[in-house]
Each structure stands twice: as structure tokens, then as C-alpha cells.
From TrEMBL:
This is Transcriptional regulator. SUPFAM superfamilies: lambda repressor-like DNA-binding domains. PROSITE patterns: HTH_CROC1. Gene3D superfamilies: lambda repressor-like DNA-binding domains. The lineage of its organism: Bacteria, Bacillati, Bacillota, Bacilli, Lactobacillales. CDD domains: HTH_XRE (cd00093). The keyword DNA-binding applies. GO terms for molecular function: DNA binding. Residues 6-60 form the HTH cro/C1-type domain. InterPro entries: Cro/C1-type_HTH, Lambda_DNA-bd_dom_sf.
Length: 71
């Protein structure tokens, strides 16, 4: 699973879910779903989210520990 720091980053920027949604052109419900891991954003949307926070993609999204371990 790919994890994210969106909720933490929003708090650091004093943004609501609606604020972030407006900045990246999606619904507040979509932001909620991404934060709760019910929806994995497309690569394009993930880049938009990272850009909104002015961060590299890997500072917003990261793999769950063990995701890339050999089976």
C-alpha cells in the first residue's frame, strides 16, 4: 500500500480538506477518500497534490514498510 502525509501537511499549512480540494480541482470527498486510503490517486493527481504543497512527490506519498521487500 502507498501511504501519504496529506492530513499532516494540510495541518501544517492550516488548510481544510476543502482548501486542498479547491487547489487541485477535486471534491472534498475525494480528499477524504485519499486520506483514509479508500482511493489511491492517479499519478497525475498525486503530482498535483505534491505541487500544491510545493514538495517532491516522495515527501507526500511513500510505500508502506515492506512493500518492496523480496517475496
Amino acid at each position: 500500500m502507498i501511504k501519504n502525509r496529506i492530513k499532516v501537511l494540510r495541518a501544517e499549512n492550516d488548510w481544510t480538506q476543502a482548501d486542498l480540494a479547491l487547489r487541485i480541482g477535486i471534491s472534498r470527498q475525494a480528499v477524504i477518500s485519499i486520506e483514509k486510503y479508500k482511493y489511491l490517486p492517479s499519478l497525475e493527481l498525486a503530482f498535483k497534490i505534491a505541487h500544491a504543497f510545493d514538495l517532491p512527490l516522495t515527501e507526500v506519498f511513500y510505500p508502506e514498510e515492506g512493500l518492496f521487500d523480496e517475496q
